[in-house]
Amino acid sequence: MKRVAVLISGRGTNLQALIDAKQDAYKIVLVISNVPGAEGLEKARRAGIETLVIDHKRFGKDREAFEREIDTELGARAIDIVALAGFMRVLTPFFVRAWAGHLVNIHPSLLPKYPGTKTHERALEAGDREHGATVHLVVEEVDAGEILGQATLQIEPGDTPETLAQRLLPLEHDLYPRCLAKLARSLPESR
Length: 191
Ligand code: GRF
Description:
The protein is α/β, with parallel strands linked by helices. It contains six helices and seven strands; from the N terminus they run E-H-E-H-E-H-E-H-E-H-E-E-H.
């Protein structure tokens, strides 16, 4: 059973899906938010999971100091895998290297299409017929690591960024736990 920490910044619906999934490959033991009062923190507490707030603002421009504090807390709890779930900070090479192969993210596009933000808008503007979400390992280049799994939906006439986001979310909630469990099973027993 791999010990997972989930990093969030917001409402945490993917976190909830990771908590609810019935599987025996991983256990979420810690949730860290960089945003005090993030809705996802309450979801974690309700599930009896330890929560921490590490506010990036406390560190000013020193991104690495922010990440060192996160890394220290992860180390103290013998975390095996870090799962980003709506975590809105770009991580520096320090953190990405420290967790290489053990750091995973969900992104709302069919990578390698549309790394970065406004993915639904960009898929619509491009006239794409398909859109989706990707779970991938995190590397230094943003949204570029090895793909662990994807979920696809058809873009319908009349779709807007909002309808796409709404239809994609349940697919994300199905995809992320499956990919996290697959990663957990593929890793050696201890880091
Ligand atoms: C999701 O759309 C995810 O793909 C993206 O951020 C959003 C997080 O939503 N990375 P939630 O906080 O899990 O509800």
